[in-house]
Model the fold of this input.
Amino acid sequence: MFNLIQSVLLIFIEMMCCKIFYETFGEIRYKGWINAIQFILLLGSMCILAYGFSEYLTMRQTFAILLFSAFMFWHVKISIKKSFVLATLFDALLLALDYLIYLISRWFPLDKELLGQQYGIGRILVYLLGKVILFLLILLIGKQFGKKSIEKMLDTEWLRFLFFPVFTIAAISAMLSVFGYVQTVEQANLLIIIAFGMVVMNIIVFYLINDIVEREMKMHQNKVFQIQARNQLEMYRSISENFDKQKRKTHEYKNQIACIDSLLEKKQYSKLDEYVKKIYGSLNNEPDAINTNNVIVNAILNTKYQEADTKGIVFVFRINDLSELTIKDEDVVTILSNLLDNAIEACEKCEDKRVIKFKLVKEEDRIIIAVKNTYNYDIVYEHGEVKTTKTFEADEHGVGIKNILKTIEKYGGSYVIEDKNKEFYFSIIIPL
Done:
């Protein structure tokens, strides 16, 4: 009975490794009780296959690949063809590790019989060692090729996590070296229970860390959403204010035209000339100095232009007709708001030269966005990306830069970041 439980637990560990292997390459279709039923059915099927076809290796491996393909296609959102390929790769990995177990078993004196327990203990420990190595290989594959949250861990966090499987491999290896000195059945069973417990603990720790990373990703996404929502709210507020201003201007223009008409009727040309010059001067001071024929772009650029002007920042811009801009409004807000916010904040810290040069033009089959601004602090690059030097809401500023890069990637664009002579340059090209 104890041997049966050991065999079922070994198959259980293999199926958990198979599950992790597949989840690395696709999203889970169902969660909750359906997920549990899928795993129980797969585990039961593999147990029947292991015992019913133990003497037919080729047939057993063929059915195993088919079972992996069917159940994992049901479990993970991938094509049946990809599921079959992954099943074949996983089965090949199992066969390779079985051969490794065979080689390891030749290195240890597993044929000794002390109280009739040494052979069984050694065999189980070697099998468990193979399963931990399988688990470690799947983690490395997931880190290198996967699309799940585990590969988003930082390298330092990843190395800390790898301590668990590496320690388990070392511990089971140590057990193998001393198992010949076991004196009682209770000691033998205790070794096996400890070994199984460490292997299962590795799987539990993996899912705990995976859940933590996914939770952090959701928190990050919520923060991104809040920043985007705030930017859009500011943009729509600006549009609403401009609309209200336009309504007031329309009413004022009616009164001004009536006044001009009255002066013409009375032939008071000198007063008319003085009045027209006064109106013309006020028109030159209108806040909406930028017009791209795109309501969203106008709202953002005019708002940032007014903000820069009140802070004593020279805002030089080059634009053209953007009436046919195909980039989504929310993405326009993400790129322009974050770029210009960063540029304005950098210029604010400059004591003398405060200049922002901005370019947004549509040229043939592409959109060019470029911002060049002065700064007076050291720019730090981390992993090829700009690391913010701001201590106030630093996480939020970092999210802003990442949002820009994510939006560029969404449209298949490219970007260049440079800093030279205390000028920071961010250029973006987005194909249409």
